[in-house]
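User: structure tokens for RNA polymerase sigma factor, please.
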Amino acid sequence: MSDVREALTRAHREEWARVVAGLTKRFGDLDIAEEAAAESFATAVQRWPADGVPPSPGAWLTTTATRKAIDRIRRENKRDDKQREAQPVHDTTPPHLIDDDRLRLIFTCCHPALAAESRVALTLRMVGGLTVPEIARAFLVPESTMGQRITRAKAKIKAARVPYRVPSAEDLPARVSGVLAVLFLTFNEGYLATGPGTGPVRQDLTAEAIRLTRLVCALLPGHGEATGLLALMLLTEARRPARVSADGELVALDEQNRALWDAPLIAEGHRLVRERLATRVAPGRYQILAAINAVHTSARNMRETDWSQILALYDQLVRIDASPIVALNRAIALAELDGPEPALESVERLGDRLAGYHPYHATRADLLRRLGRNDEARTAYDRAIELAGNTAETAALSRRREELG
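Assistant: Done. Predicted tokens:
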């Protein structure tokens, strides 16, 4: 029985996106594809324990789902209408691009016509196979709200006649960046959950983001930023076992027990970073962030970290992403290399743009503490605690404030 459960779990993980994508291609309707795929897996749960796991689970699920879809169309007696509705969303992929139904599905779910939150929800449902209750719990909204969000996203795709295809060569770079942004947003929500009352780290979301990014890398081999994002996620996820203390407090990088870090994930992340460096192609944002994390995870402790290399990488990143958040992170590296005073000068210049961003106040508080300006540090810690949305992070900030005496 346990073997059947494992087979069902594996089939869902490996075949869900393929089944949904194949049905979407055939019937041109995300609603039909989603419902028929879900019914096929429900049927498998009922029949596989009695009949045994089929030799080709993916083929079995696809065949069953196709029959379910046809049955639904016949029941509704709207087959002609459904076929007409399919025309706006179905298209062919140019022959010079990879022709994979899953890739078409990813680009459809991450289409820029949809709001960012809808792209995330639809991708997790249609590509990741998460249920609506699971996605609702992940983003701390009522199940009915999340269901409506996904329903509206599918309706928008149909109404806007979003083509079910891989973008043209000219549009591909911009569209891939949108897909990666959705995956990065999903990972970040798991890496440091923002909602009160949730666990500080959501491994279910980080694992799903990594799995979907692996899929994109497999479908777009050699894509630098996709590879860079995967490396970044792996090197960040590797530190997860050391990020929360037994008391539920977020543990800063300089205080983490590095023996707890996941060595295989670090090794894979380092390999991906080296592969991208070997191409000698100018790196993008995710590749540079991955390289920064590779430097961090190469050091045995904080003192041995090559801060000059990290600062040089941030200087490179600033040239392609001049956001205040990148500048803030650069200042943190500068503090380790040149001391807190020049770093604080850099941070202070960001105050107008990051006034509502709690890491700004936490960084400023830490630099003020290191300079012995404790009264100012307490005020900055108070503001960071007020803005922080994660209970584990709030606990860590509160402890640092109390240590000021």
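User: Anything notable?

Assistant: The domain at 327-405 is CATH 1.25.40.10 (Serine Threonine Protein Phosphatase 5, Tetratricopeptide repeat).
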